[in-house]
Every structure is written in structure tokens, then in C-alpha cells.
Amino acid sequence: MREALDPWTFVVASYAIGVGATAAMVTWSLMAMKRAEKRRDEARKR
Fold first, then answer.
1. Global confidence as pTM
2. Stretch 37-41: mean pLDDT
3. How far apart are CA 19 and CA 2, in angstroms?
């Protein structure tokens, strides 16, 4: 019987965290870009 830890659990978890964090950052950046474009358009109308 082996009592060593299985490293693939940590590999999969780290990839999941990395992909999730990247998706969150892309979403946050897109939302910030949309807000900035909206502010720019409102400033040009004045």
C-alpha cells in the first residue's frame, strides 16, 4: 500500500485556479473598458 500523495490533484487544482483567475481578470477588464467607453461617450456629448 502506498501512502504518498497524488500530485495530480494539486496540478488540476492549480490549473483550475489559474484558468478561473484569468477568466475573472478578463471579465473585470471588459467591464472596466465598457464603463470607460460610456464615460468617454458621455463627455463627448457635452
1. 0.72
2. 96
3. 31
